[in-house]
Amino acid sequence: MSGNTDELMEPGGKVRLFIAGDLAAGVSPRLDDDQTHYLLHVMRAKAGDRISLFNGRDGEWLAKVVETSKRSLALVCEKQTGFQREVPDLWLAFAPIKKTPADYLVQKATELGVRVLQPTMTRRTIVGRVNVERMRANAIEAAEQSGRMTVPECRGPLTLEKVIAAWPQNRVLIFCDEAGDAPMLIDALLDMPENAPAGLLIGPEGGFDPAERDIIRALPQAVPVVLGHRILRADTAALAALAIWQSVWGDWR
Amino acid sequence: MSGNTDELMEPGGKVRLFIAGDLAAGVSPRLDDDQTHYLLHVMRAKAGDRISLFNGRDGEWLAKVVETSKRSLALVCEKQTGFQREVPDLWLAFAPIKKTPADYLVQKATELGVRVLQPTMTRRTIVGRVNVERMRANAIEAAEQSGRMTVPECRGPLTLEKVIAAWPQNRVLIFCDEAGDAPMLIDALLDMPENAPAGLLIGPEGGFDPAERDIIRALPQAVPVVLGHRILRADTAALAALAIWQSVWGDWR
């Protein structure tokens, strides 16, 4: 965020923070230490400034700074400025990638309105560790900036086999299959029933191995698709697929 | 790229490099110093290894390493392995963004098959400098990895006014208008004539200012669109729009 505090702290409440506690008229929401530091020492908040808050349950609220000291800041909720709403029912299961592209993927997937992020370990996955706390921090920041009323659920990593075994019966599994004679994603989407809960599954850089493809394709809910003939990095494929899904079945329409 | 040189240097030619010179059977293509260093000291190329080459004109060729020394490496073109082809006629005009997201944008836009990258200075553009050489280096690397036969043209920055004034009469200008009552991108695309040359225009983080929106909207070729109701960062909007365009009018079908 840039330094023009006047503009950012205006009544419009351009600073927008996700908090854990309840939001309702007259409530004094509590911020965590990082948020307090950010408001006091980065944004230089002073009594009378207003910020926006959301918690994933109570919509968006405008809160007024009523008092500041060196280390603390008191807020009071004034009025609701946005209704609570959920993003469309779209999950993203993805093979973990390196730190910087992973940060980027979580940020972009959050902006693009994904509901659940499921790191999925595959045989060709090179990255062995998934930092779920870091995923969640990135998802919160992106949710704050994108105007979402919810933060995507950041799940712990599971093996592909477990993800497939636990896949809900009524949820389409859209599977980006590089080795494929599969239809284009947009064409497959246009053939699907309306309002079907869905999940995208994106493999690692080297693709799924043949045994994994068999496991995925054996799932009745699986729909293999392709995304053109150029080779896309895993994160590019994920973002492209999310954008196309939102365009056809999401809340972009 | 990972370290398994055996696999990467196999006859399939998994190392893929863009070069300036001509490619034809029997020709000895010359690599630049960085490419020579990469092959000799990172990939540990030895006589008999094969790599893939393209130059944006002659398709893709398999070249054999015939001799190596400490500082040089001799290649000979063996056979053509891919026909020359152009990506669809899609430009991306974008307000410059910070270094890391800009690198990412150029990489992803190249993978998504953009033909021209046009940095476009707007009133709310915060980033004052555009490093066209860096853009081109990122575009080359992404073209190599994505299997493209061409590198996108990386143009020098122009003001929005100049971009609009020089916009070709027959090229649709798809303009992501945040302040809009505009149709969804996918719906606008479905209404367009087939095979229309197109360009996407993506504004800076703060959006276009009202005077700029007037200038753009006054262009007869301009088609304002929206990408849902969440706030997308400029690079997210660009990638989402490119993916959707490729799905509807590009060569993904």
What does this structure look like?
The structure is a homodimer of 253-residue chains. Mean pLDDT of chain A is 91; it is low at 1-12. In chain A, the strands form two sheets. In chain A, strands 5, 6, 7, 8, 9, 10 and 11 form a seven-stranded parallel sheet that branches. A four-stranded mixed sheet of chain A has the order 1-2-3-4. The first copy, chain A, has 253 residues and is α/β, with parallel strands linked by helices. Chain A folds into two domains: 5-82, Ribosomal Protein L25, Chain P (Beta Barrel); 90-248, SPOUT methyltransferase, trefoil knot domain (Alpha/beta knot), CATH 3.40.1280.10. In chain A, helix 2 (33-42) links the parallel strand 1 (16-18) and strand 2. In chain A, 31% of the residues lie in helices and 22% in strands. The longest helix of chain A has 15 residues, at 132-146. Chain A has eight helices and eleven strands. Chains A and B meet through helix 3, helix 6 and helix 8 of A and helix 3, helix 6 and helix 8 of B.
